[in-house]
Amino acid sequence: MSEIRNVNVMDLGVTQYEDALELMKKLQQKRIDDEIIDTLIFLQHPEVVTVGPRARNDGVMPPSGYPTFPVDRGGGLTWHGPGQLVAYPIFKWNKDDEKSVAQIISKLERWIISALKSLNIESNTDDRMQGVWVKGKKISSIGLSFLRWTSRHGFTINYDTPKSRVEGLAGCGLDTDTTTSLSRLGHKVSIEQLKEKLIQTMPVKLDREIVANN
């Protein structure tokens, strides 16, 4: 394991997507300029479907009744809302095993899988789409945007989303009912448990550890 890097955590509770986006942009520039250390944001959003470049290029939009917002990170449609943990790593990715976007995504996937395993939930990757899957269903999406190898946006873990909302969305080229939440698969976990396990497994899986909480 390489040298451990310090990380600050910001836990913002329920935050409007637009407000989080502005904060991410500011923190990303500060991290590029080394004004702050790597920073991990935990939050939840009121319901919104973010529409990435892939979805816009393919003319894909969510069904009526879903609020939307355009984004610049990779991918297509991504649902955000109640019962979903959102994590935004504003990290400078320059360690030896962080030389490509694929390596970084894989590192995040292994981190999420490790955190879920510590909650007795077996999960895996799947050739159909990046992210983390449980019993053939996608419960975690990953989408990053980079500037000088410093990231914003991040990943989601659906733990107890409202019935049929995320299932009714054909996100990122997947069929409806492919994405779901842990509760729908019989796993009862809280957002606090997920955050705790992500923090606990961070040193081994990301070579980073928490030094402060805001």
Describe the sheet with the most strands: 6 strands, mixed
Q: How many discrete structural domains?
A: 1
SSE topology string: EHEEHEEEHEEEEEHE
The first-to-last residue Cα distance is 27 Å
Beta strand count: 12
> What strand order characterises the main sheet?
10-11-6-2-1-12
Query: Helix segment count?
Result: 4
The radius of gyration over CA amounts to: 16 Å
DSSP strand (E) fraction?
Answer: 25-35%
CATH architecture: 2-Layer Sandwich
Principal-axes geometry comes out as globular
- Relevant CATH superfamily: Bira Bifunctional Protein, Domain 2
Overall pLDDT metric: 92
CATH class: Alpha Beta
Structural class: alpha/beta
What fold name stands as the CATH topology?
A: BirA Bifunctional Protein, domain 2
Poorly predicted tracts of residues: none
Can you put this structure into words, describing what you see?
By secondary structure, the chain is α/β, with parallel strands linked by helices. It has one domain: 2-Layer Sandwich (BirA Bifunctional Protein, domain 2), CATH 3.30.930. It is 26% helix and 32% strand. It is built from four helices and twelve strands, in the order βαββαβββαβββββαβ. A six-stranded mixed beta sheet has the order 10-11-6-2-1-12, with helices on both faces. The chain has a three-stranded mixed beta sheet with strand order 4-3-5. Strand 7 and strand 8 form a beta hairpin. It is globular, with a radius of gyration of 16 Å. It starts with a strand and ends with a strand. The mean pLDDT is 92.
